[in-house]
Amino acid sequence: MDARTEKEKMLAGELYQAFGEELFQERQRAKALCRRFNATTEEEMPARDAVLRELLGSCGANAFVEPGFRCDYGYNIHVGDNFYSNYDLIILDVCEVRIGHNCFIAPRVSIFTAAHPLDAPTRIAGWEFGKPVTIGDNVWIGGHAVINPGVKIGNNVVIAAGAVVTKDVPDNVVVAGVPARVIRELE
């Protein structure tokens, strides 16, 4: 019998059940912090920054996120210096999400680490898993883009608006489309 907790299995990217009390309470904490963050006004920048830093696993200098922001746990999200996210960012962070320095995210971007088994009975029984997402330095992600579980995005990359990124992206390229593919190399 596996003596590990569901959280330990979740963080390891293995099948786990999200219904247990520990993970439920951690999601409730993240929801409360997101609600507090999203309720701040433009006159409350220090309070907004403090809540963001309490929510995220780590947060570099000059990080700014426009409300509304949603995440599952928060502590699995790590952003570098000079990070900017426009409105309505969603990060499902059952596994780690690492975002480098000088990254800009347009409105309504979704970053998913959470995934579900293809096998219907396993999925219906409540099993899920996650795969970490890594985004390099100097990346710009266009509006309504989706970053899928397990994707690694290189440095100096532009993700076009509406792109659905399903596989790794090398350095110095522009990707676009569904699924996203390299459409241009950058110098």
UniProtKB/TrEMBL annotation:
Sequence ranges assigned to domain Maltose/galactoside acetyltransferase in this UniProt record: 7-61
Family in the record: Belongs to the transferase hexapeptide repeat family.
InterPro entries, alphabetized: Hexapep, Hexapep_transf_CS, Hexapeptide_acetyltransf, Mac_dom, Trimer_LpxA-like_sf
Organism superkingdom: Bacteria
Protein name: Sugar O-acetyltransferase
Membrane-spanning parts: none
Keywords per UniProt: Acyltransferase, Repeat, Transferase
